[in-house]
Amino acid sequence: MMRPLTPGTVAQGVTVNVAFWIVAVLLAVFYLYAGGKKVAQSRERLQPMMGWVDRVPMPLVRFIGTAEVLGAAGMILPPLTGIAPWLAIAAAIGLALIQVGGIVVHVSRGETRQTGLNIVLLATAVAVAWLGTTWL
Fold first, then answer.
1. What does the buried/exposed string (b/e) look like for 62-77 if buried means 16 or more CB atoms within 10 Å of the residue's CB?
2. Number of alpha carbons in the 13 Å side-chain half-sphere of residue 20
3. Around 33, how many Cα atoms within 13 Å sit in the side-chain half-sphere?
4. Which residues have C-beta within 8 Å of that of residue 133, sequence separation ≥ 6?
5. What is the DSSP letter of 42?
6. What are the transmembrane regions (predicted)?
């Protein structure tokens, strides 16, 4: 049963809408940058920032970068256009899974201290997915 629209429920919906857009756009900007670097730069250019690239094939690095760029676009474009907005939730979940993989790679390399950014990105992607389920 739907709750009746009251000023409180409308304000809550606006707040969730604004929160979704702020968090999703910030996360998308990060992934466009990070994914774009993985797609466009050589292993030598990536190595100082991403030590793990020396242990994986470059096609995998390119695939991860492509997935990050597509995930960023998928969080923003569907709700912006109104075409299949549920794809934003799927994109956020996909980006969260990429971070789970990143955490696994860091831990397997003995780089537990370097998982902080991955944990923040994982939590942010989960937040976008949750906000999307309450708003989209």
1. eebbebbbebbbbbbb
2. 22
3. 7
4. 89
5. -
6. 12-35, 56-77, 83-105, 117-135
Residue with tokens 């299949």: 84
Integer Cα distance of 11 and 34 in angstroms: 35
Res 35: pLDDT: 98
pLDDT along the chain (136 residues), means of 10: 57 85 98 98 96 94 99 97 96 99 95 96 98 86
Give the length of the chain. Answer: 136
> What pTM did the predictor assign?
0.89
Phi, psi of 56 (to 5 degrees): -125, 150
